[in-house]
Design brief:
The complex is a heterodimer of chains A (129) and B (383).
Chain A (H helix, E strand, L loop, with lengths): L7 E2 L4 E6 L2 E6 L1 H7 L2 E5 L6 E2 L4 E7 L3 E5 L4 E6 L2 H4 L3 H4 L7 E5 L11 H11 L3
Chain B lengths: L15 H6 L3 E5 L2 E6 L8 H10 L2 E4 L4 E6 L3 H8 L12 E7 L5 E11 L2 E6 L4 H11 L6 E4 L4 E7 L3 H6 L14 E6 L2 E7 L8 E7 L2 H14 L6 E2 L2 H10 L15 H4 L15 H10 L4 E7 L10 E3 L5 E11 L4 E8 L9 E6 L2 E8 L12
Parallel strand pairs in B: 3-13
Antiparallel strand pairs in B: 1-2, 3-9, 4-7, 4-8, 5-6, 6-7, 9-12, 10-11, 11-12, 14-17, 14-19, 15-16, 15-18, 16-17, 18-19
The chains are: A alpha+beta (129), B alpha+beta (383).
């Protein structure tokens, strides 16, 4: 799987795509593959604050529940309501199935995140775990 | 994805390399390196594997299960002493669900007792309790004239489960499977291997078979592949422990360490119909008699979430007022019923169907209600 170079990645397997102070957040294809069949996505309320490195929601597969970590701080402006009824969209297209949109508190925070090439390398080195 | 490196302490079945070649996601299950699910790229994943077994056929490597053989003039007496069900009711070739109990009426393990011959029984036991069970059986059958053998490492055990399982296996064996009823066994050639034990048993709440072939990597790989190709026309898929768990949960089949354990007794677990108190004696009998008179403080119930949320193992159950009343033993989305279901221990006053409770999910009380169990019952067929 190629990781799109138009966004940044975290070691917790989220992606963030920024345009100015607006950013879109989701989980990576590697994450969806690790999780298996996704059956439940819990997202924050619009208007709530998220903090870099802290949980903003959770995603559940048949087998287990995993926390979602915010790649950067900001205010939630929108969540992907489709995922409430079709969580399996994340399995089908993880890089297209965004989870939330935020207004970034500090767009500079993204500089510390992984590029697509670095993330790909990280996933390979992590040995899938 | 690169599979995790197995450490020396992790045990492998003879099919381990086959699972890895197929790209299975492997996990440590009670010290065994086992497939939890196979890749979506080959039509698998827990939901697809689960649905294949409910509507067609799936195969599982269950070689991590243990096998104990008891044979000799007093084999029946020995089995009767350690097993709560009544093995005297078994005809040769018949099997029954039962449990080994501690003197206080709690579980050493649950087992399937197969009567293979006039004086020969095979107990099939859980992976996580293999050594403990064997020691228990050996130590408690010493007074009997009966040999006790641990055959756990002798077999590769493959489960062929689902309504089409019979059609798949029939293509590979000379045994007449239509003559084998549920919970009966036969012997026949399978994939050219002579005198293979074929049992119409399983852990999926579905029709199916379990075959016991010699534990050998080459033989195992060949048989596994032959079953997959024979099952192709029926949409067969390999299935991992993930689907095995959701399948058994829908059927309310207990899992050791969850619904049954050394601190839970037979009455609490609701396994009364497999416990034959009319037998004069078995280990645990006296305590269970006393326990029956006293009544239970908790009982196993089925829950269905009525609000958004998935109950998971060990989550706390509360009454609607928020008071802690019990805990979830197993919880999962149900792939077939498309509901979030769970088994839980609660006091008997909360057991009536329709009782509203809350399951604590990450600090929040989420609504659930008691529902009839099993959650899933396979449709009755005339054959």
């Amino acid at each position: 799987m190629a990781y799109p170079s138009d966004r940044k990645y975290t070691k917790q397997h989220e992606w963030i795509q920024a345009s100015g102070t607006t950013a879109t957040v989701g989980i990576t294809d590697h994450a969806q593959e690790e999780l298996g069949d996704i059956v439940f996505v819990e997202l924050p309320k619009v208007g709530s604050e998220v903090t870099a490195g802290k949980t903003f929601g959770s995603v559940e597969s048949v087998k287990a529940v995993s926390d979602l970590y915010a790649p950067a701080a900001g205010t939630v402006t929108e969540v992907n309501g489709e995922l409430a009824t079709s969580p399996e969209n994340v399995n089908k297209d993880a890089h297209g199935s965004w989870m939330m949109k935020i207004t970034l508190k500090n767009p500079g925070e993204l500089d510390a995140l992984l590029s697509s090439a670095d993330y790909e390398k990280f996933v390979a080195e992590e040995g899938g775990h | 994805m690169t599979p995790i490196e197995a450490t020396a302490a992790v045990r492998k079945t003879a099919l381990n390399a086959v699972h890895r070649q197929m790209g299975a996601k492997m996990v440590d299950f009670n010290g065994w390196d086992m497939p939890v699910e196979y890749p979506a790229a080959i039509g698998c994943g827990i939901i697809n594997e689960h649905m294949a077994v409910r509507t067609g056929v799936g195969i599982f490597d269950v070689s991590h299960m243990g096998d104990i053989r008891l044979a000799g003039p007093q084999a029946l007496a020995a089995v009767q002493h350690i097993s709560m069900n009544d093995a005297a009711r078994l005809a040769v070739g018949q099997a029954q669900y039962s449990a080994l109990l501690y003197p206080r009426g709690t579980f050493v393990d649950d087992v399937i007792v197969h009567r293979l011959g006039e004086d020969e029984y095979l107990l099939v036991i859980n992976a996580g309790t293999r050594e403990k069970d064997f020691d228990w059986v050996r130590n408690n059958t010493r007074p009997f004239d009966c040999a006790v053998e641990n055959l756990s490492d002798d077999f590769t055990q493959i489960a062929i489960q689902g309504p089409k399982g019979v059609d798949v296996l029939q293509k590979l064996t000379d045994a007449n499977l239509s003559a084998v009823k549920f919970y009966w066994v036969t012997h026949g050639s399978v994939c050219g291997l002579k005198n293979i034990l074929i049992a119409r048993t399983g852990y999926t709440a579905e029709d199916g078979f379990e075959i016991y072939i010699p534990s050998d990597e080459t033989i195992g790989a060949r048989v596994w592949k032959e079953i997959l190709s024979a099952g192709k026309e029926f949409g067969i898929v390999p299935c991992g422990l993930g689907a095995r768990n959701t399948l058994r949960l829908e059927g309310k089949l207990p899992l050791y360490g969850h619904e049954i354990s050394d601190t839970i007794n037979v009455w609490e677990a609701g396994l009364d119909r497999f416990c034959k108190m009319e037998k004069p004696e078995f280990i645990g009998h006296a305590a269970l008699e006393k326990g029956k008179a006293e009544g239970v403080k908790r009982t196993l119930v089925g829950l269905e979430m009525t609000e958004r949320g998935i109950a998971r193992d060990s989550y706390i159950v509360r009454d609607v007022a928020g008071r802690e009343i019990g805990y979830v033993t197993s919880g999962s989305p149900s792939p077939f019923l498309k509901k979030n279901i769970a088994l839980a221990y609660v006091p008997p006053e909360f057991a009536p169907v329709g009782t509203a409770v809350k399951v604590e999910i990450r600090g929040q009380g989420v609504g659930a209600q008691v529902v009839p169990t099993p959650f899933y019952k396979r449709p009755k067929k005339s054959s």
